[in-house]
Amino acid sequence: xxxxxxxxxxxxxxxxPLGLAQELRDLVAHRFLLHQLVWRDLxxxxxxxxxxxxxxxxxxxxxxxxxxxxxxxAFRFPTPHYETYFLSxxxxxxxxxxTTVNAMVSVAWNGPLMKRVFVPKxxxxxxxxxxxxxxxxxxxxxxxxxxxxVGAPIHAAILFLPVSLAILxxxxxxxxxxxxxxxxxxxxxxxxxxxxxxxxxxxxxxVYPIDIVPEIFRPVIKLNPMIYLxxxxxxxxxxxxxPSPLTLTISIVLSLGMLTIGWIVYRHLAPRFHSQF
Amino acid sequence: xxxxxxxxxSVRYRTHGAKGLKEFVIRGLRGQRQHEWFASLSEIDLTIxxxxxxxxxxxxxxxxxxxxxxAAGIIQPSEGVAISRGAITPLIELGTGFEGELxxxxxxxxxxxxxxxxxxxxxxxxxxxxSFAALDGFIDEPLRTYSTGMVARxxxxxxxxxxxxxxxxxxxxxxxxxxxxxxxxxxMRSFIERGLTVVLVSHDVDVIEQLCVRAIWLEHGRIVAxxxxxxxxxRYQRARATSPx
Lengths: 277, 245
Ligand SMILES: Nc1ncnc2c1ncn2[C@@H]1O[C@H](COP(=O)(O)OP(=O)(O)OP(=O)(O)O)[C@@H](O)[C@H]1O
Ligand SMILES: [Mg+2]
Fold this sequence. Notes:
The complex is a heterodimer. By secondary structure, chain A is mainly α. Chain A has helices at residues 20-29, 31-43, 53-74, 82-109, 111-114, 123-150, 161-185, 188-203, 218-221, 226-239, 245-269; one strand at 9-13.
């Protein structure tokens, strides 16, 4: 006879949004699934080609080289070690943009799964973010190798990077939650978002130094939240300094704010996801 | 001890909704209706006690799979309360949750994880799963090289091997070949003897009559009859004979 004393009771009340405590308990219970999803994200795509992980690292590397050659040679910015200046933020930008898109794909792809077994609904954006962070860390390692090769100075401040990654990771998770929830209901959200991404990229001083922006436009540029979140990655790598307290505060507030917004949107929309699959 | 309690549970689906955000906004500006509702289950009251074996019958689209989903807590009711107690293992729609590029062995871990199990729990059952599925040399081959029935065997082996208290099966015992089907039926019988709760959706009323004590007949999202399996099945078949669908 099964022992029912130790077993949990699940109450599903019609029309109620996801509860935070219950969601966290379910995530802990499904920790092995989270582990498997992250691993699958990182490996399955490349299973059939033996290059595997190598390609994961080569792709950003090639993109980097193209940008560096084109921008530093063609525009001749007066920035020393332009490759480090550019790559430090470009890697962070790639993490944000790829993770948010991957999260939307993952939720859409796993929709049928959510109708077959019980899984905590936030597990797909979370696993995409974790897999993104792994790739982000690998790219940073590649960057450090590049810096060593070209003789760019490497400072002790890079030990601050885990904090930067955590802050940017939380912001990315928040954005992913909101975007995923909307993308389940509206098929064109992903397209529109992917169309908007390059515009935001060029409005952020990743490629060009902010000094070349005319004085009057700088306050407008500074309204872009991505500036602060990318700066906390560039400061320790390129300038070898810790981010200023102001920049750090702004980015922490932005990331916690984004996570709160994302969770609120997600908890209200996720209980009715099954209607869309 | 009730393992499943549904209190005035309704499940409604949105239909004819806007495909995209653009259409949604345009409809909103024009003052058009955004979507319509389709009731898949309407005001269901149902209690299943520990150790019961229940068969669910009804025509296509009656709401049988939807009933299993709310009972397992996979989907939230639109109205009402769905309560479940203990570990529930649903086996609904085979095939999803399997990764063609992963081997059978790797898929066992992924599917076990989907059912909320940890690595250790899966490891302790892996030999039993592999031997019950009886896939011979294929267990270390990618899943894309399997036949439909082989994938089904693996899925059933995983779901029935892990520790659970309630098993919900949706029309899946019919997929395997005769010998595998007989093995599954034997396993169901042993579950019932051990005091587990089994809820079975099937169009094969003979299977339900053999395995289940109680049967529920669903039609258009409502319970038409609920009682001893033999009686409910007889009523269902009489109704079908007089008005063939
Ligand atoms: N995502 C959805 N959107 C709209 N309607 C849906 C959706 N999913 C299911 N339905 C409707 O709900 C009803 C019940 O579906 P359900 O899958 O529970 O039927 P069933 O009794 O299991 O049928 P079958 O015997 O064919 O398996 C059907 O009429 C179906 O069209
Ligand atoms: Mg069905």
